């Protein structure tokens, strides 16, 4: 994995490559930004560049050290991610145990902690001691999409490397070229923040299914009222698609925005491009104020889901709200 392979994130690349050239790589980094915006790819690229024996500020991809990283079997590179809902103290202790031993080739040991904001308090305190007093030369890379959930003492001991969401247009360009459905790509690009997260969504069979269900429920709610409640029961709650309700509400939010785009003559901005004809018809059935209120309703229902409201009740309230 080379820095050249990562789209965007020029600020992050410049920071890291400058440190490599000046031989001033930090002992600990915090890669912070939207989930799926390339942090894990960048962490691997940095590790490969550090170990590369041929290039100063990037990975050649050909030397033995580079190939070990590429194949996931470099003995001095360690990945940690949550076990279940959190990163636990035993995981940090195991890392410390591994780092008690020097590497055979005098390499720096590198550890990458994904979703570092999900550390338990005990794990975070244990990591803090490790950050301050590593037993061997080490580089830590902590990845987070929620910097505010991390201990201030950990933040103060790491060098932050900021990541930004890629523009949907750039994401769209990449995956359409790879042969994915343009309609699905456009929707996924506006629901995610980077290439990794977009590809992950596109590769799920249920993504196309729930998109179709959302369009059906939206059309029925606005034209046939209570029929949408029957469809929701059959298409969502008897099929397993109900596991993805938050994403469905995000789709509804985009769909309602499309109604506004058409109303204001901005068809080129429509996200559900394959639905332009039906959107043009439906958009005339409500006022702009109503479409904005529906966007608010979708956001509110998503918030209720996150607060553990019953999913079926939440969907029913939403569909009734659209029909009234």
From TrEMBL:
The keyword Transferase applies. InterPro entries: ClpA/B (IPR001270), DNA_pol_HolB (IPR004622), DNA_Rep/Repair_Clamp_Loader (IPR050238), P-loop_NTPase (IPR027417). The keyword Nucleotidyltransferase applies. One of its GO terms (molecular function) is DNA-directed DNA polymerase activity. It comes from the Bacteria. It is an enzyme of class 2 (transferase). Keywords: Nucleotidyltransferase, Transferase. Its EC number is 2.7.7.7. PANTHER family: DNA POLYMERASE III SUBUNIT DELTA, REPLICATION FACTOR C / DNA POLYMERASE III GAMMA-TAU SUBUNIT. This is DNA polymerase III subunit delta. The gene is holB.
